[in-house]
Amino acid sequence: MIEVITMFLFNIVVYNIALLYGTCGEIVVEKSGSLNLGVEGTMAIGAILGYLAGCGTDNFWVAVLVSFVSSAIVGSFFALMTVKFQANQNVTGLALTTFGVAFFFFIGNGLGKNWPALKDHPDFMKGFDAVEIPGLSKIPVIGKALFSHNILIYLGIIIAVVLWFYFEKTRVGLRLRAIGENPAAADALGVDIKRYKYLHIMLGSGIMGIGGLYMGMNLGGAFEGSNCWINGYGWIAVALVIFSNWSTAHAIVGAFLFGFFNTLGVYRGPLASIFPNALGGLKLIPSHFFSALPFIITLLVLIIDSIRTDVRSNEPESIGRNYYREDR
Amino acid sequence: MNKVHLVRRTNVSFGRKCIAYTGGLLVALFIGGILLAVLGINPIDYYRDMMTIGLIGNKFAYKSIEGFFKILVPLLLTSIALTLSFKMRFWNIGGEGQFIVGSIMAAIVAHKCTGLPTQVVVLLMCITAMLVSGAMGLGIAALKVRHGTNETLVTLMTNYIALYLIKFLGETQGSWNFFLRTDSERPVFAKFPETAWMGGIKIGNFTLLYSVIITVLIAVGIFIYLKYTKQGYEISVVGDSPDTARYAGMKVKKIVLRTMFISAALIGLSGAFAASAAQTVSSSLSNNVGWTGIIVAWLGQLSVPWVILISFLISVLQYGSQAASTVYSSIDTNFADLLQSLILFQMLIVNFFLTFKIVRSKEVVENNVVTVASEISDKAAPVENSNPTSVDENENPLKEA
């Protein structure tokens, strides 16, 4: 019984940390005033290129670096299109998603039988092994669930915390928020808007890429012809940005809350049989409902936020609109 | 300070546009060709097989054309519908959800109204799909006009809620679930009763479905609606500047609600068409038209004739890649997605160079004066803007490396 609860908590973390990467990345991008709907595609490209680089060099950190850099390049392309070429952000982002996922399948199908298996690259695989935090991992129930994970999980939490500090406590972070809120005012203050936007769109996209790599590694690096590794997580991340009100600290809570519902969909059978009285009803709820729940919750948050005027949303004011100096 | 500077172009000739877009298309095909060559496939052979959609040397060519229309109809209808809302700057990216809801509604009617004659059932399917999808669009539009809810994100969420709804219907067996086959162990969507099949005109072996004809009529209708009616004019004014529209005495809220209803209803209709033509419903029925439609509408620059042309071309890409995948095993239909996003990127870049001109910074002061002067002369007498064009030719546009 304890086993099931531990595994339940463990899987909430393991299967949903990629959401945190995607969300944190998207928050960085959106803080600069850009709505990048290409999260799914950016993650897919980072995932496959990082994975292949990891297999090629048999080195875990090369994989992480390549996934970050390749996704950052994808981000720089988004920035080029929207900041320099003034292309519509929605359309560019959607096309990026189409492109990224198609690119994923293109490479995967193109390699076909030559697709490298993770088990043939032991050193690469070793980087993904669980690292137990001394002391904490010995706590019953939650020790195994929370403090015995692979390095990318800790890294994800660290990134979220560091970003929170960056936005809230540093001068550069403040300037970035100013750009997102009111680019014209920031421009008048002498902030180099273009450089800020480029750098942050690239940084955010790079973070998404590591999340993509994580998803691939977590699935054992197996390529299946019809399923993309990212499998809609990029879109949940877009939703989660809204739910966490553009705060990476809230995103940690949000990712695990969304993850809780996700995992509940999978574990509702075992949980219902262990606690037939309290949770027996879980079995009656279809798993699809749990999959849809993140989107339903976000939809409600969106609607309630817009109806209530007393709650201030942290949504960057200029989001989705390109800044062209002459248009003022 | 920046070394270069952007200036809006005033007018671009049609010929120049054509050259620019063709060039963009060729660049996209070239990049795709390089990717093909990397996989060891001859790009020219592949493109030839793709563009001819498997018609050449095929005894069952009529089957190919029927299959092609099954891709074209939902895409064209959805793109046209999205054009309506995009023209109003209403970012309805929920085409996928509205399509799925439409197809579910059509399926309900198909399975439940079995006693009626064929064409009546199909008509009922279409009307139900339109009303329910339209109501969905209306609700989202109402939130937008009353509370300023972000429609991009709301419609995005509805896509996934609808997707999981249809997956739920397709994967859950139970006595209540009339969508599924009763004789199958595994959950499979049942074929519609024959009364719900889309009829058509027989031409030899080939059947031209009524949905194709109606879609073409709707496309023409929307073209006229946007170009020659008062309501169509209102849509573009609201899109350009809601304040102007309000100042001119237009009821902006009413226009947004009405347009969004029509847009979503048409997408629902395309869901019903697709379901009736496929004679069943499934979670993959939409074939991503909600997403592809956005790309098509944008490539067509929100102009109906172009949207019709582009959706035809994109359907060739999609159907062609299906046909070609039988020959080239390492490439599946995703290559069409890859290619169409490459084309869109090229077009977005081309658009930039058609709207803006990059000039050296030291010319900026001079240029600003010219732009202002041309704006004034534009307002005073639009005919007399020979001045800026003559300056255009003297300038030396500098492209950034």
The count of β-strands of chain B is 4
Please give the number of β-strands of chain A. Answer: 2
Order of helices and strands of chain A: HHHHHEHEHHHHHHHH
Helix content of chain A: over 70%
Q: Tell me about the largest β-sheet of chain A.
A: 2 strands, antiparallel
Task: Supply the number of helical segments of chain A.
Answer: 14
Span between N and C termini of chain A?
A: 64 Å
Question: SSE order of chain B in H/E notation?
Answer: EHHHHHHEEHHHHHHHEHH
Radius of gyration of chain A, Cα only, in angstroms? 20 Å
Strand order of the largest sheet of chain B: 1-4
Helix and strand composition category of chain B: mainly alpha
Classify the beta-strand content of chain A into a percent band. under 5%
Summarize it.
The complex is a heterodimer of chains A (328) and B (401). Chain A has 328 residues and is mostly helical.
Structural overview:
With 328 residues, chain A is mainly α. Chain A has 14 helices and two strands. Chain A has a two-stranded antiparallel sheet with strand order 1-2. The longest helix of chain A is centred in the N-terminal third of the chain and has 30 residues, at 2-31. Chain A is globular, with a radius of gyration of 20 Å. Chain A starts with a helix and ends in a 21-residue tail after the last helix. The model of chain A has no long low-confidence stretch (mean pLDDT 88). Chain B is mostly helical and 401 residues long. Chain B contains 15 helices and four strands. Chain B has a two-stranded antiparallel ribbon with strand order 1-4. In chain B, strands 2-3 form a two-stranded antiparallel ribbon. In chain B, a hairpin with a 2-residue loop joins β2 and β3 (206-209). The longest helix of chain B has 30 residues, at 118-147. Chain B is globular and about 75 Å long. The model of chain B is unreliable at 363-401 (pLDDT under 50). The chains are: A mainly alpha (328), B mainly alpha (401). At the A-B interface, α4, α11 and α14 of A face β1, α6, α11 and α13 of B.
